[in-house]
């Protein structure tokens, strides 16, 4: 289902990028869902409150998006040959539980919708017991991210239709949205 992947590290503190060689773990044998994406919380990701800083939740979600792009044909070779890529147009992150240094993370990515030039998807971040573990079915995510992404022709500077093969692959992965998806930030009433 997926290509074999390896990490590239530039120094001891830099998180490796996601490439076509980055290892991913399969969660389904039938190609109807994306593999889980895994990372371990690094000490430098911990903030002054003693848990993972909000920026690093977004970093992990960004790497999970990169892994999704690889799995659906929007990999580096595609981007180089076409000049097209996915651009995030909107994102909504929910921080639900603190995450400690050394925690093993698993990200489940779900496609929620796709049309000619847009994809809506979400990530659910879980803490698991070991680096390649799968979250228990009853596990609650520690954070979520819902995104709307546009397929952009970088040379033309505007959105462009997905190639049929990519759109069909994305469409084959669409599943019902979780109950939390589609919400906005609640208004805070003015103090009177």
Automatic annotation (TrEMBL):
Among CDD domains, the record links this protein to:
4HBT (cd00586)
Q: Name one Pfam family in it.
A: 4HBT_2
- Name the Gene3D superfamilies for this protein: Hotdog Thioesterase (3.10.129.10)
Which residues fall in a compositionally biased region of kind Basic and acidic residues? Answer: 1-12
Membrane spanning residue stretches: none
Q: Name one GO molecular function term.
A: fatty acyl-CoA hydrolase activity
- Disordered, as annotated region: 1-24
Identify this protein by name. Answer: Thioesterase family protein
Q: Which organism is it from?
A: Streptomyces sp. JL1001
């Amino acid at each position: 289902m997926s290509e074999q992947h390896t990490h590239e590290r530039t120094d001891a503190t830099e998180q490796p990028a996601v490439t076509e060689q980055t290892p991913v773990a399969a969660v389904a044998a039938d190609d109807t869902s994306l593999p889980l994406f895994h990372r371990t919380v690094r000490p430098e990701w911990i903030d002054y409150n003693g848990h993972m800083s909000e920026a690093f939740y977004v970093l992990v979600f960004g790497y999970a998006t990169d892994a999704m792009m690889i799995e659906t044909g929007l990999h580096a070779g595609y981007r180089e040959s076409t000049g097209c890529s996915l651009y995030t147009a909107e994102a909504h992150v929910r921080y639900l539980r603190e995450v400690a240094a050394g925690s093993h993370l698993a990200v489940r990515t779900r496609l929620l919708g796709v049309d000619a030039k847009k994809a809506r998807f979400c990530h659910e971040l879980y803490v698991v017991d070991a680096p390649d573990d799968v979250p228990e079915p009853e596990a609650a995510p520690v954070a979520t991210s819902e995104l709307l992404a546009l397929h952009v022709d970088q040379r033309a500077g505007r959105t462009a239709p997905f190639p049929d093969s990519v759109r069909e692959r994305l469409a084959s992965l669409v599943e019902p949205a979780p109950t939390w998806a589609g919400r906005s930030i609640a208004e805070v009433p003015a103090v009177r």
